C-alpha cells in the first residue's frame, strides 16, 4: 500500500489570553506500515470544544474525539469501511492498536443502522453530552416543578441541559449572547431566554423569569454571572459548575464580591465537576440521549466547518459566542 | 408571691458595622402572676454567640440559649429548683408554658447528676456544638488520614471541630489570631496552628503544614481566607461554610478573585449550612460530645463574663478575636 501522510494540529506554545493561530502548527508525518493488530483511521468528523483549550500540553496533538473510517486494517475486530468513534484529536490519520485512547470510551464502533448521522456521535456519544447529562442530573438533583437557570445556553452543553430539564419537568431559563440564539432557545421549549448583552441586569431578568426563585443553576460562565444567579437562589439550591468561559481567556480576572455568605445563608451546594468522574456510566447517557433525539424530545443542532485546515477557525468560534449548537469539522 | 421584674436586652436598631452598645437597650418589665401550667425561670448562665448578630429582629429580645433555675411553678412537670436549658435569650426572668421556644430543643431539663457543670449545656447542648458536630461530620465527610483546615480555630465551634477531627483520625491545621491561642490549639492536639496575624501568607502556611494537600475545610471566616485555602485543596475536597466572620461587620466588602474555576478543576463540593437543618438529630450530637468531654477526648474551655449587665461586653468580645473557648455570662 502507498504510504499515508498524517496531518496533525500541534500545540506549539501555551495560549496567552485568546488562542491565536500561531499558538498552533500543522505538521505532516509519514505513517509507517501497519503491524499486526493495527488499523488505520481516516478522520471524517472532528470535534472542537472549549475544554480542548486546557487539556493538551505543548508539543502534543490537540486532544478530542473524532468520527473516522477505517481505511486499512490488520486487526480482526476492525474491518476496512467500519465507522468508529475514537479519541484521536485533531489528526487526519491515525494508526491504532485496537485499544481505546485517552479513556475507556476512547474507541468504539458506530452502528451503521443508526438513523442518527454519524457526526452526532461527537455531540451525543462523547464528553460534551455526558457533561450535560451527568452534570445536570447528578449535581443539580432536579425535581419536577423546580426552576433551572443555565448560561451559555445555546451551546452544545447548555442547550442539552435545558432540554433535559424540560424532559424532567422543570421551568427552564436560559441566557445566551444574541437575539437569534434567544429565538433558538425558545424553539427548544425554554420557558424564558435572554440575550445577556441587551438586558439591563441578570438580576432583573431572573426576578422577572423566576417568580419562585432558582433551585438549580448550571454554570458555564463564572465570574459576575455566578454571583448574580446565587443572589436569586432558593434555600438548599444546587449549583453545578461546569465551565467558566468568562475566565478562560482572561489575562487578568476582574474581582468579584465574596460569595461564601450567600452560600451559607441559603445553604447552597456548589459543586465543580469534570465529566470523567462518571466514565463508567457514560454509555447510559449516550443511550438515553440518542433515544431522546430519535423521539424528537431532544433537538440537536450542528454547526459544520469544512476541511481539516478550518479546525482552528471552528475552535476559535467557540470563544466568540456566535455559534448555535455543537460545532464540528467535516474533514 | 412578690412580683418579679424581668430585665431584657432588646435590639433597638439594626447594627451598622460592628455592634455598638447604643444599638441595644436594657428594659425592665414587671411579670404577671403565673397561670396554671406556667413556670418562672431565673437565668443563671446566658450564651453569647456570633450568630446572635443576625437572628434577632429590631424590638425583640436577643435570641439564644440560657441555663436557668425554676423559681416558681404551676406546672406539674417542672418543679421549683429544677435546672433547665431554655431558648429564652438575653432575659433575666422568663415565664414559660412548658413548651419549647424557638425550636424543638428550646426547652429541656438538665440532669443534676451530670458531672459536667450546667453552664456547659450552652457549649455542648445547643446550636454551637451541633454546628461543629454536624457541619464537620456531615458536610466534610472526613476520612481517617485526611487533612482538615479550620479557621477561627480557638473559638467555640472551631476548637470543637478540630478536636472531633483528631478523634476521627485526621491531620488538623488551625488558624487563629494570637500566639496564646496557637499554644492553646497545640495543647488540644492540633498538628499545626498559626497566628494568621504574624505569618507571611496563608498559602505558605498551608504548603508547610499540609504536605498532602487539604481534603476538608471548615470555614468560619470567608473572604480571602476562603480563596487561599481553596488553592491548596485536593481533588474532590469538601468545604463546609459555617460562618463568614470577616464579613459580618464589614460595611463594604473587599472584592476577591472568582473561585468557580478552582471549584471546577478540583471538583470541590462547597456547602453552606445552618445547623437547624439537623434539628431532629441534635440530641445524638449532645450525647456523643458530652461523652467525649467526660472521657477527656474533647476539651472544653469557657470564658466567663460576670453579671447580666456584662452581656454586651461578652458579645462584642466575640468580634475582637481575643477569646479562647466558649464565651458565657454568669448572671
The CATH superfamily label of the largest domain in chain A reads NAD(P)-binding Rossmann-like Domain
Structural class of chain A: alpha/beta
- Which chains have the largest interface? A-B, 32 and 32 residues
How much is the radius of gyration of chain A in Å?
A: 21 Å
- Using the coordinates shown, work out and report the CATH topology of the largest domain in chain A: Rossmann fold
> How many structurally independent domains of chain A?
2
The 3D shape of chain A can be described as globular
**In percent, how much strand structure appears in the residues of chain A?**
25-35%
Biggest sheet descriptor of chain A:
7 strands, mixed
Order of helices and strands of chain A: EEEHEEEEHHEHEHEHEHEHHEHEHE
Supply the CATH architecture of the largest domain in chain A.
3-Layer(aba) Sandwich
Q: Low-confidence parts of chain A, pLDDT < 50 over ≥5 residues? A: none
Portion of residues within helices of chain A: 25-40%
Helix count of chain A equals 11
CATH C-level label of the largest domain in chain A: Alpha Beta
Span between N and C termini of chain A?
22 Å
Provide mean pLDDT of chain A, rounded.
91
Number of strands of chain A: 15
Oligomeric state, counting identical vs distinct chains: homodimer
Amino acid at each position: 500500500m502507498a504510504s499515508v501522510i498524517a496531518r496533525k494540529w500541534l500545540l506549539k506554545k501555551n495560549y496567552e489570553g485568546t488562542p491565536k493561530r500561531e499558538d498552533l502548527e500543522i505538521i505532516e508525518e509519514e505513517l509507517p506500515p501497519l503491524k499486526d493488530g493495527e488499523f488505520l483511521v481516516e478522520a471524517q468528523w472532528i470535534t472542537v470544544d472549549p475544554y480542548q483549550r486546557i487539556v493538551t500540553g505543548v508539543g502534543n496533538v490537540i486532544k478530542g474525539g473524532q468520527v473516522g473510517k477505517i481505511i486499512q486494517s490488520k486487526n480482526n475486530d476492525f474491518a476496512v469501511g467500519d465507522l468508529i468513534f475514537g479519541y484521536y484529536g485533531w489528526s487526519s490519520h491515525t494508526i491504532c492498536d485496537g485499544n481505546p485512547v485517552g479513556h475507556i470510551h476512547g474507541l468504539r464502533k458506530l452502528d451503521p443502522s443508526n438513523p442518527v448521522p454519524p457526526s452526532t456521535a461527537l455531540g451525543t456519544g462523547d464528553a460534551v453530552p455526558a457533561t450535560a447529562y451527568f452534570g445536570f442530573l447528578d449535581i443539580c438533583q432536579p425535581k419536577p416543578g423546580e426552576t433551572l437557570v443555565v448560561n451559555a445556553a445555546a451551546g452544545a452543553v447548555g442547550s442539552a441541559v435545558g432540554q433535559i430539564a424540560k424532559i424532567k419537568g422543570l421551568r427552564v431559563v436560559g441566557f445566551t449572547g444574541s437575539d437569534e440564539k434567544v429565538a433558538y432557545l425558545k424553539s427548544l421549549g425554554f420557558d424564558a431566554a435572554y440575550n445577556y448583552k441587551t438586558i439591563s441586569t441578570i438580576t432583573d431578568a431572573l426576578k422577572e423569569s423566576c417568580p419562585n426563585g432558582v433551585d438549580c443553576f448550571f454554570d458555564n460562565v463564572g465570574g459576575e454571572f455566578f454571583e448574580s444567579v446565587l443572589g436569586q437562589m432558593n434555600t438548599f439550591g444546587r449549583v453545578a459548575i461546569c465551565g467558566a468561559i468568562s475566565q478562560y481567556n482572561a489575562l487578568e480576572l476582574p474581582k468579584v464580591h465574596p460569595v461564601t455568605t450567600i452560600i451559607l445563608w441559603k445553604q447552597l451546594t456548589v459543586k465543580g465537576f469534570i465529566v470523567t468522574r462518571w466514565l463508567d456510566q457514560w454509555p447510559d447517557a449516550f443511550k438515553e440521549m440518542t433515544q431522546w433525539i430519535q423521539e424528537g424530545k431532544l433537538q440537536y443542532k450542528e454547526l459544520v466547518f469544512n476541511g481539516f485546515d478550518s479546525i482552528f477557525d471552528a475552535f476559535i468560534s467557540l470563544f466568540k459566542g456566535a455559534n448555535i449548537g455543537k460545532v464540528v469539522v467535516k474533514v
